[in-house]
Amino acid sequence: MTKAAAKHKGKVFVISAPSGCGKTTLCKKLLDDNLKLARSISVTTRSARKGEKKGVDYRFVSPAEFIAMIDKKEFLEYEENFGYLYGTPKKFVEDLLNSGKNVLLSIDVKGAMNVRKLYPKESVLIFILPPSIEALKKRLESRSSDAAHSILNRLKISRKEIAYKNRYDYTVVNDRLDTAYKKLKNIIISEGERYAGPADR
After folding, report:
1. In whole angstroms, what is the distance from residue 169 CA to residue 199 CA?
2. pLDDT by residue (tens digit) across 149-162?
3. d(CA 12, CA 17)
4. Measured distance CA(183)–CA(174) in Å, rounded
């Protein structure tokens, strides 16, 4: 196969952020913005939240089903967060990358490090930061969906996650949503124009 005929692999864009930093909103805007990003649907053992749709927002499974998927090595990465298991289906992502499509993953820092190990050339890691821990605390309190002790636990975990920011390729501070999204979109477009294909290896 000639270099011209060889199909290049896609990129896997990994978005990580502490809880309350607007990651879900930013990812939705990316997917709605005709950037030709394929979204990986994560598998989780938690119940669907209000407004979430099965097979669209997440694939909801029982703990036993999740463990069976681990045993079959069906996950690209998986982690436990706040008592629930979350995983990224391996075959779905690999098929997209091998067909030259770019994939968007919204996963935590440990999962991001695993993806970087598996796809050192294809992965682009982007970390969303809050303006400050105090601002993050106010955002969590305003959601009114978590108890006070849960918010404190999320803030503790957030500090640990933020310590990983220097291991990411890019950081974006979500102070104003529109400004943060513009920066994020520019990163996706710029990196999307570069590819980890046969010529790069």
Report:
1. 22
2. 777 877 888 889 99
3. 16
4. 10
Q: What is the DSSP string of 54-96?
A: BTTTBEE--HHHHHHHHHTT-EEEEEEETTEEEEEEHHHHHHH
CB-based burial, 52-81: b 16+ in 10 Å, e otherwise: eeeeebbbbbeeeebeebeeeebbbbbbee
Q: CA quadruple 110, 130, 19, 36: dihedral positive or negative? A: negative
Domains of the chain: 12-193 (3.40.50.300)
Question: Residue 157 corresponds to which tokens in the numbers above?
Answer: 């975990």
Q: pLDDT over 90 for what percent of the chain?
A: 58
Identity of residue 136: L
Q: Give the distance from CA 78 to its chain's centroid.
A: 12
Structure tokens at 98: 């091998």
Contact criterion met (CB below 8 Å) for 131 and 175: yes
- Strand ranges, E, within 90-136: 102-106, 123-129
Q: Cβ distance 26 to 180 under 8 Å?
A: yes
Neighbours of 24 (CB within 10 A): 13
**% of the chain surpassing 70 pLDDT:** 91
Per-residue pLDDT, averaged over 1-12, amounts to 63
- Distance, in Å, from the CA atom of 22 to the CA atom of 143, rounded to the nearest integer, reads 12
Which residues contact residue 132 at a Cβ distance below 8 angstroms, ignoring those fewer than 6 apart? none
